Amino acid sequence: FSEDMSGKVVLITGASSGIGEHLAYEYASRGACLVLCARRVEKLHQVAQTAREMGALDAVVIPTDVVKIDDCKRAVHQTITYFGRLDHLVNNAGITSICLLEDVDDVTDFRTIMDINFWGSVYMTSCAAPYLRLSRGRIIVLSSAASWLPAPRMSFYNASKAAMAQFFETMRVEFGPDIGITLVTPGFVESEITQGKFLDKGGHLEVHQEMRDVQVSLAPVARTESCAKAIVRTACRGERYVTEPAWFRTTLWWH
Ligand code: NDP
């Protein structure tokens, strides 16, 4: 089984940087039509230009904040109006956090992690499901090894990724054979997230750097390009999981 992506329509959230950007290039090299969503529109236009040069049949930019259900509805609606179909939805947009619970003055600040990572994926999925059912399409979900790894200082992020994993495992059952799910649980991948772009409360950046160094010594940090390649290859084969086993070793350090 190998899905030919030529002319198929792929919507990627968080396509303005990191894994999402490189997923766009991977799908582009397979001749897909791309719908690129995120908040930084200029970056999306640059990605669209590169994607066209790499072989995308077409690449359109739709400014989208996945926290806003109306943005999600518009993204899917414009996709269908323009391309007439949707084959792959990639729920990739995400942010991370670093803090100790007891250092946090206002815990409600961290609701945003759940809003983007979990609810953003749920909103996009609920808007896209009718069209994915028609095309017998696929949803690619960027959860994380963090969904099963109790990495300290990352409780909110870990919980959001575990929620995603469980939600989409359940969707797998609800959708049955009509809509495939590829659940991705990467370890450390070089990107803006791992270079220190996250919700930080209490000055944990230095600790993060230390954690990162230990992780690097235990399990290799993946290149964004390799991660994207593995995800698209696996999704196009119709497989259900992309996991990085090397990450199990890091649990030795956490405990
Ligand atoms: P990046 O920070 O490079 O990319 C995150 C993307 O999400 C950006 O394009 C950003 O775009 C977008 N985004 C953030 N908030 C929103 C929002 N409200 N609405 C729409 N888009 C949004 O990080 P990565 O590429 O590393 O992360 C991609 C996914 O992979 C995330 O879900 C992350 O949790 C997951 N992951 C990453 C790992 C890693 O080690 N890097 C490991 C495991 C999982 P913009 O700011 O323009 O909106």
From TrEMBL:
Entire protein: shown range: 44 to 298 of 352
GO biological process, one term: steroid metabolic process
Keywords: Membrane, NADP, Oxidoreductase, Signal-anchor, Transmembrane, Transmembrane helix
Membrane topology: Single-pass type II membrane protein
GO molecular function: 17-beta-hydroxysteroid dehydrogenase (NADP+) activity
Subcellular location(s) of the protein: Membrane
Coiled coil: none
Main localization (coarse): membrane
Recorded family membership: Belongs to the short-chain dehydrogenases/reductases (SDR) family.
Name of the protein described by the UniProt record: Dehydrogenase
Keyword DNA repair belongs to the record: no
GO cellular component terms attached to this protein's record: cytosol; membrane
